[in-house]
C-alpha cells in the first residue's frame, strides 16, 4: 500500500481500525494467520408485536420463518401454499393455531398480519409482493426479486407508491463480514480493483435441484393450475411443481438462484450500480432430467468506470457438474491485494512489489556478456539497497463469531425498518440492480449474443 493509500485507509476505518488494530494487517505469510472476530451491532428491539405470514412454504419458506420468529416480538400467524402437505407441516412445526390456506389472498385480507414473506417460485414474486404492499403489508421477498425485468420496475413503482417496507432476501448483504469487507475495500486496501472472479460450483443431485417429491403428490393435494399462473397449461406434473427451478417458465436458472448472490455482494462492497455489457455461455452437461436450463453457466460482466469504482471485469461461473466436489469463492483483485470472500468471513492477501525489478531468471540479463553483467549488477546494487529488493507479502483474515446468522441479521434489519423507519439494506431498487444482470445473463445464454445493459435505468439497451 502506498503512503497515500495507507493514510486514506486509516482515515476511512476510523474506530474500526482502532478496534481491530491496524497492526493486524501486517501479519506476514510465514506467521500463523490470526483471524479477527467481527462483532455484529447490538440492537435494542422494541417490544411491539409484529405478526407475519409466509406465502410459499418450501425450503426457503420454512427457513425464512424459522429465522424470522427468532427476532424478539415476531409471531407467525398465517401461511399459504399450494401443496396441502406443506400446510400440514406448518401446523406440525408452529402449532395448530396458525391459519393456513391455499389462497394467499386470504392472508392479505387479514388485519392482524403486518408483514408477508414471499418465498414462492420466482414467477409469482412480483404478483404477490405488489398485492401485499397494496394491502398495506410490509414485504420480505426472496431473491431474485423478480423473474422478468419489467416486473422489477412494477415492484419498484408499487413500493414508492405505497411507501411499504420492502426487503429482498439476499441475506449476505447484511453480514457483518461483508460490512467489514466493504470498509476495507473502500479504504483502498487492495489498491485499484481490476478483476472480480466468482465461483459457486456443486456436485450433488440436491445441489442440482433434484429435490425429493412427496409420495402423496397428486392433483388432489397440489393446486397445479394455480401454480402454472400465466404459463403454458399442461396436465399435473409433480416434477415441475417440486423442482420448478429446472424450468424457464417458473424459475430463473443458475443466474437467478446463484449469480444473484455474487452480484449482490459485489454491489454492496463496491457501491456499483451494475455492468454495462454481459455475455454468457454454458451447457447442459450432467443433469439431463428434462430440465430446459443449463447446469453449467459462465458469464463475463463489464463494469464501467464510475465515481464509486474503476472499470473492471467480473467473471462468474456455476458448475453443477464439478467432478472435484464443488466449492465457492469470490475474489476482488486489485493492484495491491486480493480480497477473498467466504460467506461470513474474508481474507485480504497482499503482494507488494519491491522497488527493485529484479534480474536473472526469464530475463535478457542472461544474454549479456560477462562484462555487461558485472556492470549491470554494480549499477543495480547502487540504485537498489538490499531492503528495496524483496516483495512484501501479508495476509489477514476476518470472520463473524461462531453461530452468527446473516439471515437473522437480514430479518432483524427488516423488522427494525418496520418499527423505526430505518432504511432496509436491500430495497426494491437494489434488488433489481442485482436481479437485472442475472436475468440478462439468461437472455445472453439463450440468444447466444452479448447484451448491453443500462445500470442506471435498469434496462436492456
What characteristics describe this protein?
14 helices; 461 residues; TAT_signal; disordered N terminus; Dihydrodipicolinate Reductase, domain 2; alpha/beta
- What's the Cα radius of gyration? 25 Å
Specify the CATH homologous superfamily of the largest domain.
Dihydrodipicolinate Reductase, domain 2
Count of individual beta strands:
17
Shape: elongated
Count of alpha/pi helices: 14
CATH third-tier fold name of the largest domain: Dihydrodipicolinate Reductase, domain 2
Percent in helix? 25-40%
Number of domains: 2
Given helix and strand content, the structural type is: alpha/beta
Residues in β-strands, percent: 15-25%
Within the largest sheet, what's the order of strands? Answer: 1-15-14-13-12-8-11-10-9-16-17
- The CATH architecture classification of the largest domain is 2-Layer Sandwich
Mean pLDDT: 93
Task: Please provide a brief summary of the model.
It contains 14 helices and 17 strands. Helix content is 34%, strand content 21%.
Amino acid at each position: 500500500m502506498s503512503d497515500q493509500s495507507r493514510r486514506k485507509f486509516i482515515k476511512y476505518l476510523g474506530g474500526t481500525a482502532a478496534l481491530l488494530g491496524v497492526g493486524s494487517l501486517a501479519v506476514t505469510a510465514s506467521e500463523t494467520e490470526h483471524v479477527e472476530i467481527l462483532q455484529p451491532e447490538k440492537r435494542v428491539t422494541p417490544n411491539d408485536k409484529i405478526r407475519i405470514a409466509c406465502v410459499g412454504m418450501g425450503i426457503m419458506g420454512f427457513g425464512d420463518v424459522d429465522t424470522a420468529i427468532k427476532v424478539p416480538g415476531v409471531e407467525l400467524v398465517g401461511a399459504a401454499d399450494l401443496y396441502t402437505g406443506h400446510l400440514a407441516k406448518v401446523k406440525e412445526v408452529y402449532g395448530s393455531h396458525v391459519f393456513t390456506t391455499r389462497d394467499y389472498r386470504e392472508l392479505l385480507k387479514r388485519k392482524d398480519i403486518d408483514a408477508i414473506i414471499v418465498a414462492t417460485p420466482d414467477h409469482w414474486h412480483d404478483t404477490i409482493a405488489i398485492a401485499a404492499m397494496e394491502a398495506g403489508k410490509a414485504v420480505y421477498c426472496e431473491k431474485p426479486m423478480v423473474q422478468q425485468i419489467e416486473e422489477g420496475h412494477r415492484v419498484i413503482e408499487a413500493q414508492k407508491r405505497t411507501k411499504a417496507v420492502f426487503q429482498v432476501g439476499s441475506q449476505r448483504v447484511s453480514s457483518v463480514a461483508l460490512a467489514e469487507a466493504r470498509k476495507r475495500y473502500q479504504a483502498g486496501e487492495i489498491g485499484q480493483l481490476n478483476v472480480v472472479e466468482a465461483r459457486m460450483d456443486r456436485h450433488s443431485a440436491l445441489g442440482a435441484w433434484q429435490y425429493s417429491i412427496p409420495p402423496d403428490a397428486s392433483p388432489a393435494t397440489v393446486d397445479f393450475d394455480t401454480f402454472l399462473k400465466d404459463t403454458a397449461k399442461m396436465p399435473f406434473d409433480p416434477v415441475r411443481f417440486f423442482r420448478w427451478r429446472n424450468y424457464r417458465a417458473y424459475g430463473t436458472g443458475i443466474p437467478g438462484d446463484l449469480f444473484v448472490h455474487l452480484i449482490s455482494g459485489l454491489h454492496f462492497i463496491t457501491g456499483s450500480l451494475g455492468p454495462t455489457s454481459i455475455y454468457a455461455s454454458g451447457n447442459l452437461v450432467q443433469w439431463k432430467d428434462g430440465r430446459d436450463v443449463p447446469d453449467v453457466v459462465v458469464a463475463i460482466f463489464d463494469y464501467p468506470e464510475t465515481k464509486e469504482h474503476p472499470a473492471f471485469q467480473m467473471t462468474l461461473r456455476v458448475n453443477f457438474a464439478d467432478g472435484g466436489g464443488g466449492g465457492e469463492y469470490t475474489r476482488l483483485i486489485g493492484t495491491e491485494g486480493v480480497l477473498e470472500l467466504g460467506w461470513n468471513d474474508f481474507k485480504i492477501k497482499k503482494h507488494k512489489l519491491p522497488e527493485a525489478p529484479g534480474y536473472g531468471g526469464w530475463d535478457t540479463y542472461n544474454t549479456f556478456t560477462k562484462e555487461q553483467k558485472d556492470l549491470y549488477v554494480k549499477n543495480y546494487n547502487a540504485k537498489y539497497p538490499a531492503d528495496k529488493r524483496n516483495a512484501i507479502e501479508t495476509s489477514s483474515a476476518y470472520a463473524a463469531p461462531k453461530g452468527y446468522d446473516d439471515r437473522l441479521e437480514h430479518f432483524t434489519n427488516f423488522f427494525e425498518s418496520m418499527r423505526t423507519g430505518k432504511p432496509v439494506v436491500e430495497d426494491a431498487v437494489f434488488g433489481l440492480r442485482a436481479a437485472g444482470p442475472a436475468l440478462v445473463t439468461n437472455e445472453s445464454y439463450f440468444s447466444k449474443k452479448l447484451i448491453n445493459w443500462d445500470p442506471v435505468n435498469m434496462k436492456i439497451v
